[in-house]
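hey can u check if this looks right to u? its 355 residues, i copy pasted from the old doc so theres a chance i mangled smth
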Amino acid sequence: RITAQRLAHLNKCLMNFKLGNFSYKNHPLKLGELQGNHFTVVLRNITGTNDQIEQAMHSLREIGFINYYGMQRFGTTAVPTYQIGRAILQNNWSEVMDLILKPRPGAEKGYLVKCREEWAKTRDPAAALKKLPVKRCVEGQLLRGLLKYGMKNIISAFGIIPRNNRLMYIHSYQSYVWNNMVSKRIEEYGLRAVPGDLTLKGATAVHIEEGDVDNYTIHDVVMPLPGFDVIYPKHKIGEAYKEMLVADNLDINNMRHKIRDYSLSGAYRKIIIRPQNVNWEVVAYDDPKIPLFTTDLDKLEGKPLPVLPTDGKFRALKMEFSLPPSTYATMAIREVLKMDTSIKNQTQLNTTWLR
């Protein structure tokens, strides 16, 4: 029961975001009611031919892309979040502590590097905490927990980290397994439904039988995230799940954890996603710093569309598409570009033309 005017007043003191485009409704939005997200993306300085662009965008619209979890699911540093998730599921708490706190290669904020070095040298939570001006990061929270509960009670120390952040680690491990298994599934059986695959009837997963297989396409096929409440494909990939978890010292038939929060029930996820409302155009431009479309904020502020030259020396691909919840625009873009979209790879690209 807050008025639009009162919300709009907040814009005077908000940092880095704006509120607007308000409307009044009789019913509140609830969790789970998100239909999806609509993206407008500009890929600048493209070099492909118009035919290659048309082909890539038609393929995105008609066939779709492999519904991988995006790289952001696995963190941006040298220790991927799924490794911490795996250690939690293995009940290996000293490994959890080490993975979060030990020094790691790659670019990190200076104070974090100093904090990790101190930890490696002294294993003293108080001394390592002194090196951290920002105490709300995961490292700071874990060190505070170790200070409070002692080094012999890592489970309680880890519990100081907010629940969502803790669960993020084990969800990352599930995503890691899913990505690997989907690659194997497509490598083995291609882009068609085969007997033994899984499909959803309502919310229930059922196996696709031999006599039924012609009634399904690859767009009907789902794969499980490992857990105690899912079934697995009846073909080779079902075995591959077990083998991957055995290699990680985990039992696929026992995904319940003695700490209830870390018990995984599992879920199902479509292996191919076809985006909706796919549109694109190639535009020419000269100045690499001018905007090539109006953002929601521009629209709120009534800014006009940028005027672009017809024969600029650079070309950009403007693309729009809608995706259901929990699918990644980065993975759709990766399909169009046919290139690695991980942060590590992207930061190594030559962007001197932008300077």
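The chain has 13 helices and nine strands.
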